[in-house]
Design brief:
This protein has 495 residues and is of the alpha+beta class. Among the domains are: 136 residues, no CATH class; 135 residues, Glutaredoxin. It is 47% helix and 17% strand. It contains 17 helices and 15 strands. The strands form 4 sheets. Strands 10-9-13-12-11-14-15 form a 7-stranded mixed sheet. It has a 4-stranded mixed sheet with strand order 4-1-7-8. Strands 2-3 form a two-stranded antiparallel ribbon. The chain is globular and about 70 Å long. The N and C termini lie far apart (50 Å).
């Protein structure tokens, strides 16, 4: 988690490199007519130039939305969801906000480091619920829990608060415990203490501020599966250092608790299932991936088994690119949830349509186009290729400046083409909608594509200028924030 927090901060200024249903509705005086979630962001009152919001969809994809809030403009975001949504501020605070389908939420500035989420409803209970995770982040661990954590940490790693934000201390304790652990029993005890304290905090918060029973039930499940995920992380960390450590029976007792088929909207449940998958990958690192698949099918049940094997196959298809055909065929035979099969079948369709030159682009209508055809369509124009991704904050921050260039060169022979290096199609499409990008395409096989290799694209944002005859002028053009880019475009137009 610390790595993720740092990544978001660094990507604001540096080039970003790639890393690797139970329907519930909420009655209330101000819910939308449909199940969509509506967010309104009042740009006044923020101490940062950009805010970030992310969530996990039901396919394990992390969907991120970035907002540049300079200039005091009101921002809007609509999220389609038939289930409650854990919306996250993925910066250093790592704070969640539990939002319900059909709800309208205002984000009005910040209090300290925390975003101010407010419900349009006049029900004070909802605003207490929206404040809950902020309050939890500032809640100090008990002396007993801290003492145990300090005993687990190595002598040369002491996290006592110091200059650290209080909200980061529990997260850093966890990271330190997993990375430095010597005694797994004590580490497990620490995790259980943390879980116990969180549940006590939920009870006390309800007494002081009052939250709904539905909220308490969902949050309690979040805590419960977060604790299971922590214990699985401890097992994985110990097993990595000592392959003889693993006790299969002990592992299976913990995995047996992953049996909530209605919990997939809870991020800690998805994470716990993924943690178990990572352990199996460690166990079977010398074996075919089919052995991991078999273990998942044997040890998990129902939708959880389908989800875990879906993630295994999806990762193979998205990140490895080939060698998935046998296991995909088996999954389509075993799977009982149509949405998972449809998702993977669509990925396979896209892969089968990739052109031989390895320079295929996916359009927003799910049709494929070759880079050659796209360039031919724009022949006679100066073309700026903008390589970006939904997870690249620096790329998103450049978009407003790119829009200014569009306005400047309106009516002139200049085309702005956005080429996403996203791995996940939903993340790309969601970001497209938010940013209003009309000429946006997904680079199939992203950084592994022949297109990326030919241009030596290893990090983004990256800009490539092409002249009116279709020749590359520069493979590494200035960013839109640099006035030199406009100058170069003008010179090419005149040539």
């Amino acid at each position: 988690m610390k790595t993720i927090a740092y990544l978001f901060v660094l990507c604001m200024f540096l080039a970003c490199k790639p890393g690797k249903s139970n329907k519930t509705s909420v009655p209330g005086p101000d819910v939308a007519k449909d199940n969509d979630i509506y967010l309104t962001i009042d740009s006044n009152g923020f101490i940062t130039k950009n805010i970030f919001l992310s969530y996990f969809d039901l396919y394990g994809n992390s969907i991120q939305h970035d907002f540049n809030i300079e200039g005091g403009k009101i921002k809007h975001l609509k999220i389609k969801s038939e289930l409650p949504l854990f919306l996250k501020d993925p910066t250093a605070n790592q704070t969640y906000y539990l939002i319900y389908p059909g709800e309208k939420i205002n984000i009005k500035g910040q209090t300290g480091d925390f975003l101010n989420f407010q419900s349009n409803s006049t029900d004070s209970i909802r605003n207490h619920e929206l404040d809950f995770f902020d309050a939890l982040k500032t809640f100090s661990l008990s002396p007993e829990s801290r003492l145990m954590a300090d005993k687990i940490l190595s002598k040369n790693l002491k996290i006592t608060g110091g200059n650290l934000k209080p909200s980061l201390i529990p997260m850093l304790y966890r990271i330190a415990i997993i990375n430095k652990l010597k005694d797994t029993t004590r580490a497990m005890e620490y995790g259980n203490l943390e879980y116990s304290e969180r549940m006590k905090f939920l009870t006390e918060y309800d007494k002081q501020h009052q939250v709904s029973e539905k909220f308490k039930t969902i949050v309690a499940k979040y805590f419960y599966y977060d604790n299971i995920g922590f214990r699985l992380s401890v097992i994985k960390g110990k097993f990595t250092k000592d392959p003889n450590f693993l006790n299969q029976q002990q592992l299976q007792r913990k995995v047996a608790e992953l049996n909530c088929d209605s919990c997939f909207f809870i991020p800690s449940y998805q994470t716990a299932v993924s943690d178990y998958l990572r352990i199996l990958k460690k166990i079977h690192k010398e074996n075919p991936v089919t052995e991991i698949y078999k273990d998942l099918r044997i040890s998990l049940q129902g939708k959880t088994a389908d989800f875990a094997t879906f993630i295994l196959v999806k990762d193979l298809m998205e990140y490895q690119g080939n060698g998935y055909e046998v296991i995909l065929k088996q999954f389509l035979k075993d799977n009982r949830h149509k949405e998972f099969s449809d998702y993977l079948t669509k990925i396979e369709k896209h892969k089968n349509e990739v052109t031989k030159d390895g320079m295929s682009l996916l359009q927003s209508d799910d049709k494929m186009i070759s880079l050659k055809s796209l360039l031919e369509k724009n022949k006679g124009k100066v073309i700026l290729l903008d390589f970006w991704a939904s997870w690249c904050s620096a790329c998103i921050a450049d978009i407003p400046y790119s829009n200014k260039l569009k306005t400047r060169f309106a009516g002139q022979p200049v085309a702005f083409i956005y080429l996403s290096m996203d791995t996940q199609v939903p993340a790309w499409k969601s970001s497209n909608d938010q940013l209003g990008l009309s000429s946006s395409y997904l680079v199939m096989d992203n950084f592994k594509s022949e297109l990326a290799k030919s241009l030596k694209i290893e990090s983004i944002p990256r800009y490539v200028l092409i002249d009116k005859a279709g020749n590359i002028v520069t493979k590494n053009a200035p960013r839109p924030t640099d006035k030199e880019l406009a100058n170069q475009i003008e010179r090419i137009i005149k040539d």
